[in-house]
């Protein structure tokens, strides 16, 4: 029996699919629906709006050139908490959207134990039991979730000020708020690298919503097998044989 969260998420997906389109060409697999892509880009948009406006507020001697983008210092200060709330709100919807595939599994623990191979590229293919998300993606997801909770609580304290929460609480919130933002920023840099240079073909999953079968069997073989019924290692070997045969014929 579907939970209320699942029913809400399914309704949102259906609604967005009626306005957008996820086109899948031959040799591709559908990866992310319109609703998922919308949430992803809204989270990214408001994260960077909150980040840049925050830089201008907390480090004006270094980032004062950010504030004119938001109409000046006072307006940047006024907009910053609203950007933060929008970020948390959209990420909250993303949590509902991805809660099931982000659950930790024994395969993720094995992935973490062999993380050196993933980082160094010693193995060309991900482990056969790597599903829709790998353990690294799940770690980042939960890190952002925890960071968002800290972000929200400390942000409210800073918004209300010392008159409401006291000077000590506000001072501690400044430190935790900034640390949380910097940790998330570091994770975003890793995410951008992996979605472009590190794992070519990933970026289009959040623009067009589809990925190549080669991308799927390389980075998420268990998911590839789930949606196609084919063995990812066998598909990879067949593709290599076709490539070698084509080169010989040329």
Key terms for this structure?
250 residues; mainly alpha; Fumarate Reductase Cytochrome B subunit; two-stranded antiparallel ribbon; 12 helices; elongated
Please give a structural write-up.
With 250 residues, this protein is mainly alpha-helical. It has a domain at 30-114 and 124-211: Fumarate Reductase Cytochrome B subunit (Up-down Bundle). It contains twelve helices and two strands, in the order αβααααααααβααα. The protein has a two-stranded antiparallel ribbon with strand order 1-2. α10 packs across α12. The protein is elongated, with a radius of gyration of 21 Å. The mean pLDDT is 89.
Summarize the structure.
This protein has 250 residues and is an all-alpha fold. Helix content is 72%, strand content 2%.
State the helix count.
12
Structural class: mainly alpha
From the 3D coordinates, which CATH architecture of the domain at 30-114 and 124-211 would you assign?
Up-down Bundle
Please give the radius of gyration in angstroms. Answer: 21 Å
Helix and strand pattern: HEHHHHHHHHEHHH
Give helix % range.
over 70%
Examine the coordinates and then state which fold CATH places here, giving the name of the CATH topology of the domain at 30-114 and 124-211. Fumarate Reductase Cytochrome B subunit
Characterize the largest beta sheet: strand count, sense, and whether it forms a barrel. Answer: 2 strands, antiparallel
Shape: elongated
Query: What order do the strands of the largest sheet run in, or round the barrel if closed?
Result: 1-2
Low-confidence stretches: none
Which CATH C-level class of the domain at 30-114 and 124-211 is it? Mainly Alpha
Question: How much of the polypeptide forms β-strand, as a percent range?
Answer: under 5%
**Overall pLDDT, averaged?**
89
- The CATH homologous superfamily name of the domain at 30-114 and 124-211 equals Transmembrane di-heme cytochromes, Chain C
